[in-house]
From TrEMBL:
Entries under Pfam families matching the protein: Band_7
Membrane protein topology class: Single-pass membrane protein
Coiled-coil regions, chain positions: 196-228
Protein name (record): Putative band 7 protein
UniProt keyword Transmembrane present: yes
Length: 285
């Protein structure tokens, strides 16, 4: 049987180097066509998955390169988001006095940019329903349970402050930063609201009457002090009105009157008569 002639080793190597540039260019084109470039926009970070496994180092905004087919990138927003718990998602809880309270609110939050991969690994992209919703519900029920229905109705700011403290700590443990909790509405049973309003109006009326009574007391005291002051003044004046003082004061007034620009005759009353006793020459020019 005839042997098949084999190509010399040197010729094989030579042929490989001839086709290598073609293979290299082909691989480069294939790589580019597979789109290895990923652009992460501002306000986002990327979580790189290699064969489904998340890399704990996030990709930052800008151009990033991944291995096509083998790797892909999940973009996660690190901007402020709002999560509503209203309508069907509103929270029912029991107050200290056993009444059902319905609370509607909005949560403003954002994820920690350097913990996006951790959030994705532990909770996936449904972290709102898995983290924020249960944390908020638990906090609302804990806070409401410590307050009477009247306190719930009147102290919304206190409730909001307590919720901020509790929720902020719990979310931070899960790599989420709380910006604010906005209470949209707190609904109590109608009869309870009417009773609270009636009590509030009665209190305001009582305070109004108290104010009026105090005002009248102060006015009466003012008049008493004023009358006493007038009486004391009259008593002092009456004690100082001697005959000599009155004569001196009378003469001073006559003198002042006589020195006026328009007077030439001064009448001085004595008993029931008015007798002119001073004639002043008109020397004024």
């Amino acid at each position: 049987m005839d042997k098949i002639p084999q190509m010399p080793q040197k010729e094989k190597v030579s042929n490989f180097f001839k086709i290598f540039p073609v293979i290299f260019v082909f691989l480069i084109l294939l790589f580019l066509l597979a789109n290895p470039f990923v652009i992460i926009p501002s306000g986002y970070v990327g979580v790189k998955l290699t064969l489904g496994k998340a890399d704990k180092e996030e990709l930052h905004p800008g151009l990033n390169i991944v291995i096509p087919i083998v790797q892909k990138v999940v973009k996660m927003s690190v901007r402020t988001h709002s999560y509503d718990l209203r309508g069907a998602n509103s929270i029912n809880s029991l107050s200290k006095d056993g009444l059902t309270i319905n609370t509607e609110l909005t949560v403003l939050y954002k994820i920690m940019s350097d913990k996006a991969a951790e959030i994705y690994i532990e909770y996936g992209l449904e972290y709102e329903d898995k983290i924020i919703k249960p944390v908020i519900r638990s906090a609302v029920r804990d806070v409401i349970a410590k307050l009477d229905s009247s306190q719930v109705y009147q102290e919304r700011d206190v409730i909001q402050k307590k919720l901020m403290e509790k929720v902020s700590k719990e979310l931070e443990k899960r790599y989420i930063l709380l910006d604010e909790i906005l209470i949209r509405d707190i609904k109590l049973p109608k009869r309870v609201v009417e009773a609270i309003e009636q009590k509030r109006r009665a209190y305001e009326e009582a305070e109004k009457m108290k104010f009026l009574v105090e005002k009248e007391k102060l006015e009466a005291e003012r008049k008493r002090v004023e009358a006493k002051g007038i009486a004391d003044a009259n008593k002092i004046i009456a004690g100082s009105l001697t005959k000599e003082y009155l004569q001196w004061k009378f003469i001073e007034n006559i003198k002042s009157y006589a020195e006026g620009d328009n007077n030439t005759v001064i009448l001085i009353p004595y008993d029931t008569e008015m007798t002119p006793i001073i004639n002043l020459p008109n020397t004024r020019k």
